[in-house]
Fold:
Amino acid sequence: MGAVFRKHPKQAQPVPSAQVHTEHPAQGFDPRHLSKDLVVWCRADAGVETNGSTVSKWRDMSGRGHDFSQATASSQPTPKKAGLGGHPEIVWDDDRMTGSDLYAMLTDKGEWTIFVVMGEGWQDSSGGGSGASGSYSNSPNLLTANPSIGYIGICVLSANRGGFGGGIFNAGYKDSIPETAGKINQGEPAIFALYSDSGGIKTRQNGVDGTTAAAADLVSTATTLQIGDAADNNNADDYYDGPLSEAMIFNGVLTQNEFSIVESYLSDRYGIRVGH
Amino acid sequence: MRWLVLETAGAAKAREVELSAATGYPHPATATDRVVEAISHLDGRGALPVPTSVWSWAHGCEIDLSALLTETEAASLHSLIEMAEGGWFDTVEIL
Structure:
């Protein structure tokens, strides 16, 4: 008898979840109940405080108080009511928001998991960077953590490299980018995960594993989280131009089953097909 | 977005405060301190980004910030490319 993946009490599915239209899309799922603590959880449909027509604060829904904020009006992103999957999203265009100390959130600096969901319309990079090296400069930075240069980052890759990359800096750049099967085109929605465990620094894009870089701990200077721009703010190409629907950071690495659960939840919620 | 270059970093900071006040910042209800943020450069000059659309509490709508500049200032605005070519942004070799 073949393996049966039980996703929902009503549903036993021997076929990939992406091919099944679920009657109840992830109702009741709460990422705060997984095996690793959720330390940042920002959703564009909750906890968004506006300054006129732009976003001045994006509250962390994990309960940890790791909010993002921006005190300069011209650098605040813009909320959009009906984005990916009909849900609100936040649109970044030469904007950035600053959050809490990532390094301080993590118990084991070599074990952590980050998820981000990007909606339709993000722009390719004109620079040539990937992962943390891209976050150093010249590539649009979706999420970074550092006071000056790219100690950790998720960024848009240059054209034809397949979407998003991520990595850290610790005695050299440890970057991961999509393999051929996982590449997406400019502007296509993405569920992107950057994570670290004893096996290395890895990414997943829409459920497909990317390349693996050597294992390394996050360095102690990977501190202040920032969305939308490199922490050094020193290059016009650093800005992420596109929508962001949701972001999560876990204090630890999720199990493979939990990866599937989170990706299924995000896939159902935002209507993004994942490859598992 | 265009840029206004001023002779000193202090002058840019002072203009930041003036333009912020003219647009209703700081705004305590939103914790937004300023309308734009001045940057300085190694040679001591300062620059202000001048967005074409930014929320102003004083006007109750989005405005083109250049409308609040003097004629001389508005005529002197620089493009992003001009700023980059002028060395206002670092260029770092990608690994």
Summary: Chain B has one domain: 2-85.
